[in-house]
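Bench notes, afternoon.
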Amino acid sequence: MVKTAVLVSGGGVNLQSLIDAGVFGEIPQCELTAVISSNPDAYALKRAEIAGIPCYVVDRGLFPSQVVFSFAILDKLRDLDIELVVLAGFEYEVSQPVLKYYGGRIIDTYPSLMPAFTDVGLSGIGIQKAAIDAGVKLTGATAYFVTGKPRSGPIILQKAVGVREGDTPAALQRRILEEGENIVLPRAVSLYCEGRLSIENGKVHIAGNEEESPDNTTK
């Protein structure tokens, strides 16, 4: 079993997808060891409590800088002997102390088919607004390994989500979360915990990839 910590800051919808996947046996090699929140009031903590997952708060507001905060996160991860880190609505960039220790072992999702719509100036619902304004017919979600470059890293899985006529940014955001991120995140975690992922020359290779569907997600 791979000891996994989920870092959160808000409502925890992506965390819930991992909890549900665990209940239904979809990530059998993953042990959800801890949920660590940067926000003491995050509803994600309640989700974890209901699921019986130990919760910890490393309150960003108590630390004078991002680097000091990151060292506190790293200390907690190491104290818990965590092997895999998953970002699920964690609102802070992972800084060098954590990246150095957990390089190749941090998974995040992004609400587009990376590298599309990853401009630093885009955030939140602005990502979906940019997709609608561009007139794209397909957007989606990406699960990837976090590196030192924001919104960039070796891509693990992607799931396409169609842009519908008359979509609002809020409607598209919700559909990408439900039909994209909540699918690719548990699957990416499962593949990692099964030991099927490797990174070569900045690209992720999935052992037994012929079992995956053409869009590189579960069937």
